[in-house]
Amino acid sequence: MSDKLKVGVIGATGMVGQRYVTLLADHPWFEVVVVAASARSAGKTYAESVSGRWKMQEAIPDGVKDLVLLDATDIEAVTSQVDFVFSAVSMSKDEIRQIEEDYAKTETPVVSNNSAHRWTPDVPMIVPEINPDHSDVIKYQRQRLGTKRGFIAVKPNCSIQSYTPALAAWQQFEPTQVVATTYQAISGAGKTLEDAPEIVGNVIPYIPGEEAKSEDEPLKIFGHVDDSKQAIVSAESPVITSQCLRVPVLYGHTAAAFVNFKQNPTKEDLIAALESYSGEPQKLNLPTAPKQFIQYMTDDFRPQVRYDVNFEHGMGISIGRLRPDKIFDWKFVGLSHNTARGAAGGAILCAELLKAQGYIVQK
């Protein structure tokens, strides 16, 4: 009998759910034993349910194609078979908040790709290389939920991965102000280029809700667990302003960012900090952790989505074009894979960290 943790993916038929099942195929620690989606899909095999709308370049993994889909709202049926779940359900935010808490209250940890709980004060929003200690808040969340084992953890917005890791690497130089414009792939909307003819040969200058996430979520990541408040308190700086555009690219979010610092780092200081930056995933040698979290590219024509989005299997961050600015101190370009590091892959790495920390165990 396998000693792998048994995993359920709720919301398994959407693009992020599909990415989960492909990334989890042959995972050394986790095995997908349950897939769940809406009631209308329940009862079909996974292969039947995604027929004609499979969006991944990889084939449907053999281990899940014949699994019969459960109704994600039949919480007992899902949780009776798994040690924890990944959540990528497509519902209203209120519905997501409720269903994820209902799962957690069955003593089933939830690692979520959704935004609904990102601002719940006792829910950690984790980039494992940056704020692994935020899992400390889980003890307070469990007190609130009345659980001993169940909890919710979330990963942040996909687009901030293209510039927030650089800011984390540069914390010693005290960044104070940031302007970040992101150029975001269509898969961030759960679509392919074929699904979204409106994006072909076009740039759409508005993504609802995205700019607030881009400005505020890094501050929660840079914050700290306040034991007196039993919550995560956001950092006050750097102050971030953002614009977010949708561009005709399938995978990869690019950021053009400008930064002011309290200190006065040189270009050599900044590059060295990027290239040497690592965290708990690298120290613990977690299965999906990139060996090198951030690479700096000296070619002015890089990073490019075409060549660099799959750096470290999509789990690494590429930074380039670091140069002085006339108004800000420095400016740079960043690139991240939005459905690997930015979505399912980032959540899987978060689950690996939580397992290593002892928060996710077999039932």
From TrEMBL:
Kindly report, in one word, the top-level EC class recorded for this enzyme.
Answer: oxidoreductase
Q: Which gene encodes it?
A: asd
User: What's an example of a GO molecular-function annotation for this chain?
Assistant: aspartate-semialdehyde dehydrogenase activity
Cited Pfam families? Semialdhyde_dh, Semialdhyde_dhC
What keywords are assigned to this protein? NADP, Oxidoreductase
Q: What is this protein called?
A: Aspartate-semialdehyde dehydrogenase
Family according to the record: Belongs to the aspartate-semialdehyde dehydrogenase family.
The reply on keyword Cell membrane is no
